[in-house]
């Protein structure tokens, strides 16, 4: 899509996902400045157009550069994309705040819940930068960084309370291999990205134990219902969890060895302790950090999450990984009817079917929709 001027954007965080999103934006035509905490990494990206630590073998575009100076990275940026570990976001925002322009759009690339407050990342950004939520957007979907960096075709969702903001971000965050849709369900979009990480840890655990596809398919299916229960109780739309930010992200994260959360779970299933897994992981597995705050939120609103409960027991060392079977947990031994996401809706077509139909219509007509993924 042609533009009269080249947008200037900043990406804060040079891990695999931050660097990949910088490549997405640069390949879409924007001039991208990345901020790296380590000067040597900033120099490698700026001079060699590579990030050998996180994206080995990937050549970055010439219109993507990097700096270790935060003020320089943010200067003149029309949109700022943040990709730092979720639990360090608030402290980073304190440094970012003096350099944000009054009209700058801020986009969260993070998938986590803040410990202690239970806030979603967009809520932490609104507090930490003291800006209108209408200037904040979030990006989510089935987005395994290395696959996208290798330019394998992928779709994602940009969500904001303001449709105009979501569309402005989506226009920049698209290119020949990366397609973005928009919606205004920030709660559902963010919680989809958070909760699928927890289910992916569970899948990794049973994979590490050596259980097969039946066990994993059962957990994924019941996990989606569990995710939807939680998100809807928080104010999300059920159909968002059946779209790219929920079901799509869940499938990609649970079945791919590239998933950090899947890898962390697999190590747990193989018998490694929680501290040992954290030590082995070179990058943050957000699912591990989000288990406790998500469970606190779930208990406060009366939502049962047996999958997440058993993941926490494995993390705490109180449940042998081989005994994990959260999809078998029920309130009684009496046979129960299977409730799916579609049971939430009146006759006339289930949530999942309408989500797939909406996505097909969007692809067919070559545009995003305000109401769907």
UniProtKB/TrEMBL annotation:
Any idea where the Glycerol-3-phosphate dehydrogenase NAD-dependent N-terminal domain is?
Answer: 9-165
Q: What is its EC number?
A: 1.1.1.94
| Entry's Gene Ontology BP terms | carbohydrate metabolic process; glycerol-3-phosphate biosynthetic process; glycerol-3-phosphate catabolic process; glycerophospholipid metabolic process; phospholipid biosynthetic process
Q: Which residues bind NADPH?
A: 16-17, 37-38, 54, 111, 145, 260, 286
Q: Where is the composition biased (Basic and acidic residues)?
A: 336-346
Q: Which PROSITE patterns does this one have?
A: NAD_G3PDH
Q: So what does this thing catalyse?
A: sn-glycerol 3-phosphate + NADP(+) = dihydroxyacetone phosphate + NADPH + H(+); sn-glycerol 3-phosphate + NAD(+) = dihydroxyacetone phosphate + NADH + H(+)
Task: Name the positions where sn-glycerol 3-phosphate binds.
Answer: 111, 141, 196, 249, 259-261
Which GO molecular function terms does the record list? glycerol-3-phosphate dehydrogenase (NAD+) activity; glycerol-3-phosphate dehydrogenase (NADP+) activity; NAD binding
User: What are the binding positions for NAD(+) in this chain?
Assistant: 13-18, 145, 260
Q: What class of enzyme is it?
A: oxidoreductase
**Compartments where located:** Cytoplasm
Does the record carry Transferase as a key word?
Answer: no
Q: Which residues form the Glycerol-3-phosphate dehydrogenase NAD-dependent C-terminal domain?
A: 185-324
Q: In which pathway does it act?
A: Membrane lipid metabolism; glycerophospholipid metabolism
Looking at the keywords, is Magnesium present? no
- Active site per the UniProt annotation: 196
Which keywords does the record carry? Cytoplasm, Lipid biosynthesis, Lipid metabolism, NAD, NADP, Nucleotide-binding, Oxidoreductase, Phospholipid biosynthesis, Phospholipid metabolism
Residue numbers spanned by region Disordered? 319-351
Q: What does this protein do?
A: Catalyzes the reduction of the glycolytic intermediate dihydroxyacetone phosphate (DHAP) to sn-glycerol 3-phosphate (G3P), the key precursor for phospholipid synthesis.
Entry's family note: Belongs to the NAD-dependent glycerol-3-phosphate dehydrogenase family.
Name of protein:
Glycerol-3-phosphate dehydrogenase [NAD(P)+]
Encoding gene, per UniProt annotation: gpsA
